[in-house]
């Protein structure tokens, strides 16, 4: 493609398409007329996105030179939207190695531009004083700028949008705590930016002139403290004024655990967010507007960004969430399909019930499980298991659902993730709670004579070591109550709703009135 070609679409590679920003950037690039290739460790997790049929998806990992090199072939613009945060103490080295692999592969393939979304760093602060999160993001930017490929590094602070970790943290802290004792970082000034503007800048960078090779600060028009943001959120959401009492004793580590208890955002994700608030992070230039002009009303102000995000939450139109990306360290092995699996012991709890309802009514209950609807058995046991998971650093039960009625492969669902879904027939969940082994929960809907349905449920566990075997036998006495109660109550719920109007089975396109993916 000629360098002066500004009318034809470009060929864009997007890494991190299963994550919060990447999953929203893809439809923006398609809308702009570009061709998109997604690099993903688990391509199947992208198949249910509205745009899945319009992109090329390849399997690979940014730490694997071979798969990155193959993904770069024929690419004009490569988006680097991944990071190894939370994968362990060596995450900085993993980030460093992945960035080098990505830059070298882009240069070897003749890629015309790299675009990277990093974190806004405070001016005049030594990198040794930065949080590991910000320090690593800054280093990745430098590595990509040194790759020999024209690179645009966009640096953002707090990203506000439905489903973002920053927004969910702000929302739940403000809504749940009318009076709060808060860490001193609530007085630190930051410059938040609406996710719509982040996506607009990222997409616009695809057509930057070749000579543009630098970092850009991106932010909204408001510079606020976290204290200000909570008060303004309360006003926009129609809540009574909040009372916030900053104290110096809550360190970023302690406050991350506090956030993990109060909000759905686990401590492992809250920690880097709070550590980044130790220093003032505001933009010192807005040069990006010279190349990606701001239309009227942009950048979007804080109040409007909150209004847009709340509207999407209330209308269940959240395209991606902070939990879209896999939890670091969570198991990713697929369910063994052979019951005589050679990989070792596979414990199974099987339940089956004939249901006095149609398969359609039963499926509606199955696909609606979790989140606000709960798990149809012994709520206290599920709540305790969620709290225990939180206490040992897991995700707990409060991630909820992206959509109250519909699921897609890759969705997080409390402390599970959707591994497989066959609309009307099968829902398979893979556990992401902390366990001494791998666990799945599988629910099937089968037709039986007379238009009725049969419900089949399997809980499976592959133990790791002696502790795994001890765990299974330790909890097995409760299975009759937990799993037996679940099967019984799901059948009852389906029977109660059998006569209710049923929406169309998912998979035939968006419901009436719902257009393409939206991003506020």
Automatic annotation (TrEMBL):
Pfam families: DUF2867, NAD_binding_10. CDD domains: SDR_a2. Residues 497-520 are annotated as: Disordered. GO terms for molecular function: protein-containing complex binding. Gene3D superfamilies: NAD(P)-binding Rossmann-like Domain (3.40.50.720). Residues 509-520 have a biased composition (Pro residues). SUPFAM superfamilies: Bet v1-like, NAD(P)-binding Rossmann-fold domains. InterPro entries: ComplexI_NDUFA9_subunit, DUF2867, NAD(P)-bd_dom, NAD(P)-bd_dom_sf. Residues 497-508 have a biased composition (Low complexity). It comes from the Bacteria. Residues 16-121 form the NAD(P)-binding domain. PANTHER family: NADH DEHYDROGENASE [UBIQUINONE] 1 ALPHA SUBCOMPLEX SUBUNIT 9, MITOCHONDRIAL, NADH-UBIQUINONE OXIDOREDUCTASE 39 KDA SUBUNIT-RELATED. This is NAD(P)-dependent oxidoreductase. The lineage of its organism: Bacteria, Bacillati, Actinomycetota, Actinomycetes, Kitasatosporales.
């Amino acid at each position: 493609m000629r360098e002066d070609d500004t009318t034809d679409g470009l060929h864009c590679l997007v890494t991190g398409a299963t994550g919060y920003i990447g999953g929203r950037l893809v439809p923006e690039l398609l809308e702009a007329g570009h061709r998109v290739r997604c690099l993903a460790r688990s391509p199947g997790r992208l198949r249910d996105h509205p745009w899945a049929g319009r992109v090329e998806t390849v399997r690979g990992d940014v730490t694997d030179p071979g798969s990155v090199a193959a993904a770069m072939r024929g690419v004009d613009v490569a988006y680097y939207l991944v990071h190894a945060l939370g994968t362990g103490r060596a995450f900085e080295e993993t980030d460093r190695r992945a960035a080098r692999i990505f830059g070298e592969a882009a240069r070897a393939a003749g890629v015309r531009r790299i675009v990277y979304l990093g974190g806004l760093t405070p001016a005049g602060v030594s990198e040794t004083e930065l949080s590991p999160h910000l320090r690593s993001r800054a280093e990745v930017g430098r590595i990509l700028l040194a790759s020999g490929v024209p690179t645009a590094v966009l640096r953002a602070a707090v990203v506000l949008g439905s489903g973002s970790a920053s927004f969910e943290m702000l929302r739940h802290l403000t809504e749940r705590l009318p009076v709060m004792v808060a860490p001193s970082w609530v007085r630190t000034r930051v410059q938040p930016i609406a996710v719509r503007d982040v996506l607009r800048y990222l997409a616009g960078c695809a057509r930057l002139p070749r000579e543009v090779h630098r970092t850009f600060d991106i932010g909204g028009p408001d510079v606020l403290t976290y204290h200000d943001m909570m008060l303004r959120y309360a006003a926009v959401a129609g809540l009574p004024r909040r009372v916030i009492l900053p104290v110096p004793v809550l360190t970023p580590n302690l406050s991350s655990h506090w956030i993990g208890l109060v909000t759905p955002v686990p401590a492992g994700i809250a920690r880097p967010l709070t550590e980044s608030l130790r220093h003032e992070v505001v933009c010192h230039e807005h040069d990006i507007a010279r190349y990606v002009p701001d239309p009227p009303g942009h950048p979007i102000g804080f109040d409007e960004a909150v209004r847009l995000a709340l509207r999407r939450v209330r209308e269940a139109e959240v395209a991606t969430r902070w939990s879209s990306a896999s939890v670091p360290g969570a198991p990713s092995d697929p369910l063994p399909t052979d019951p005589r699996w050679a990989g070792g012991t596979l414990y199974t709890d099987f339940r089956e019930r004939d249901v006095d309802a149609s398969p359609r009514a039963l499926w509606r209950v199955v696909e609606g499980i979790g989140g606000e609807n709960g798990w149809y058995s012994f709520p206290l046991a599920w709540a305790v298991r969620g709290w225990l998971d939180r206490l040992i650093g897991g995700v707990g039960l409060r991630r909820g659902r992206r959509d109250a009625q519909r699921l897609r492969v890759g969705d997080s669902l409390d402390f599970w993730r959707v591994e497989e879904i066959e609309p009307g027939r099968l829902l398979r969940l893979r556990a992401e709670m902390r366990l001494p082994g791998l666990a799945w929960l599988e629910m099937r809907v089968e037709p039986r004579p007379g238009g009725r349905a049969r419900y089949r449920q399997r809980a499976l566990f592959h133990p790791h070591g002696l502790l795994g075997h001890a765990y299974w036998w330790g909890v097995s006495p409760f299975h009759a109550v937990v799993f037996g109660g679940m099967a019984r109550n799901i059948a009852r719920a389906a029977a109660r709703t059998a006569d209710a109007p049923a929406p169309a089975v998912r998979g035939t396109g968006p419901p009436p009135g719902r257009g393409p993916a939206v991003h506020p």
